[in-house]
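Before the break, one more example. Copy the sequence into your notebook; we will annotate it together after we see the structure.
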Amino acid sequence: MFKPLALGSCALLLASCASLSPEQCRNADWRQIGFTDGANGEPASRLQSHASACAKADIKPDLDAYLSGRMEGLLSYCQPENGFEVGRRGRPDNVGDCPPHLRAPFLDQYRQGREINALEGEVQRFRGMLENDQNEARRNDRRMEEIRKELRRPNLSPERRNSLLNEMERLLDRRQDAGRRQLSMQRDLDIAIDRLQFRLREMRR
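Here is what the structure looks like once it is written out:
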């Protein structure tokens, strides 16, 4: 049984780079590395990355230890609940690496996770659009306040006054358009949130 602390440390190590350093190759626990790769759903080609990196130090991976550890890691990765989380994060499923008896339930939950990932992405997209529009509206409001201050200046030329008034009129039109647009965006956002929450309830999430 692998210790969680060792697993976490190794996961952090492997996530930080594409391969291993010469020192890491010399001190490698290939069973632990295999377990971590399996538990993270890394494809079988991950071993080739390790082999290429360690070849520079004239070290070959312990294939049997790596594959044994990887299989144990896959038993953790291929659980249905993890399939949902993998799908929700939008990661590839790598279900082909799972033991045959775990593939179908893992994939079923993965697909549900992908559906939630898409719905959450839609919510984020609408939120981003609404926030951008609100930020633009605030910039326009600040500009209108600047125009009002300048219009109060006593020695303002007629040309400059007309220019400011024309700009103010355009900004007021934009404000009205922005108000209508934001109402529509908020409706779309509310619908997207309701759809997401409904599916989560259906999935008992």
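The chain has two domains: 1-77, 119-202. Helices lie at 4-15, 22-26, 30-39, 46-55, 63-77, 80-88, 100-151, 158-202. Try to locate both features in your own notes.
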